[in-house]
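Supplementary Note 3. Input sequence used for the single-chain structure prediction.
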Amino acid sequence: MNTVRRYGPGAYDRNIFVAAGETGMGLHYGFWLPPVGDALTDPASLRKKTEEIIAEVKRLKDQPEIKAWSIANTAYKFLQYRFVKPAYLYQQKAYTDWLRALY
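The predicted structure, written as C-alpha cells, is reproduced below.
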C-alpha cells in the first residue's frame, strides 16, 4: 500500500500530512459532499460548498503528499428519493451543472 484516501478538511489533517511525509505515503484528498436539499431553489448552499472546496484546494495544493483530489457522496442519486419524476430530473440536472462548474 502506498496511497491512502483522506476526506477533509478535518481536525487530523495536520497529523495525516506529517505521517504521510514521514512514511512516504501518498494521499488521495477528498471532499465529502453534503446532501442537497434543493439544487434549484437553494443555490447558495452549493455556492458556499464550492467556496469551501476551492479555498481548501488553494491552501493544500502545494502539499507533495497529495497525489489526487476527489469528491464523493451519493447526493446525486438520493435526489430521486426526495423528489418525484420529473422534478428529480431537474434537480439532478442542476446538481450536475454545479459539479461541472466546480470542476
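The chain has a mean pLDDT of 91. The longest helix spans residues 43-60.
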